[in-house]
Structure formats: C-alpha cells, structure tokens
Model the fold of this input.
Amino acid sequence: MSATSISASDVKALRDRTGAAMMACKNALVESNGDIDAAIELLRVRGESQAAKREGNLAKEGTVQTYIHSNGKVGVLIEVDCETDFVARNDDFVGFAKDLAMHIAAAAPLAVTEEEVPAEFLESERRIATEKAADKPEDIRAKIVEGMVKKKLDEVVLLRQEHVNPKYEGKTIEDLRARLASTTGENVVIRRFTRFAVGS
Done:
C-alpha cells in the first residue's frame, strides 16, 4: 500500500493505541497494507510502541469507582490501576474509570480479558457454533465456528466491547485504555470489576 493511501485518521488511531511517533505509525501502516493490528505488531517488534513498553511496568496505584443505575437495580464496582498516585488523581483517569463503570452496568461483560473468560463458557459457545455450522461445507466449517466464537468474545470481553456511549464513536474499551496510557505516559490496567443486578 502506498503512503498516499493511508489516511491521517488511521495514523492518529494507531498513535492513540500505541503512543508511537506519527512517522513510525505511518510507515507501519504502509508495510502492513493498512491493517491496524498488524501495524501494532510491527511497532512492538521494533520497540516503537510506548504503550507496549509500559505494559511491563507495575501498576500499584489507581482508583476504585462505582456506578449505580438511576432505577437502583444495577450497580458496578471497578478498580483501574496506574503507576503513580499523581495519575490516579488525574481527572481524565478518574473519569475513564467512572465511564467504564457505567459502560459495564449497561453492557454486562463477563470478564476483563479473553483469558479470564470461563473455560466452560467457551466450550459451550464452541458446541453451539459447531451445531449451527453443521450444514455448512466441511472445508469452511472450522473457520465459521471460530468466527462465531470470536463474535461472542467481542460481546462478552470488556476490552473487546465497543463503549456504549456514542461519544466514543465505536471505539473499544481497549482503544480507550491504550489512549489513556498514551496520554498519561503510564501503564493503565483495568484490574477487576463486579456487576450487581437485583434478582440475578
């Protein structure tokens, strides 16, 4: 892909997610034919990604925030961590955690990351997908099953969910977390959450 066909918004989106320099982002997008995930991988391999460099840093500070829905029937308690007390008290950081609690109340994720999704849930989803794909040609069945499981994970894994607030324009929670890590210059970790719903 030529440099001219890479949009400025794609370069900015990659910079927001990685914290890498604009030129490094543009070059990575050109080399990966515009594939953002492949470009992130390239930046990490080259050590350009600031967010990747920070991921190993210990996040021992942070904030605990809550959200109670107006009807009093759904509530969320969430812990989001960072590296310093200075960032933990930052308005953007606290606002992110509060926004996240509201999102969790609405979107009801099962886990923060894919690795935390219960194995029995994954097995059940894989069985359902296999049954649904049973009438499809054998050579594409496995791909269909994986696609269906991936779609389900997009629905239940917090980091993969699109934020419910339209102001975030379809960005995922991971996009927003990475952008905050980039702007604060610290590792930002969504540590854990609990969602309470009356009667469940």
Remarks:
- DSSP finds nine helices and three strands in the chain.
- The radius of gyration is 19 Å.
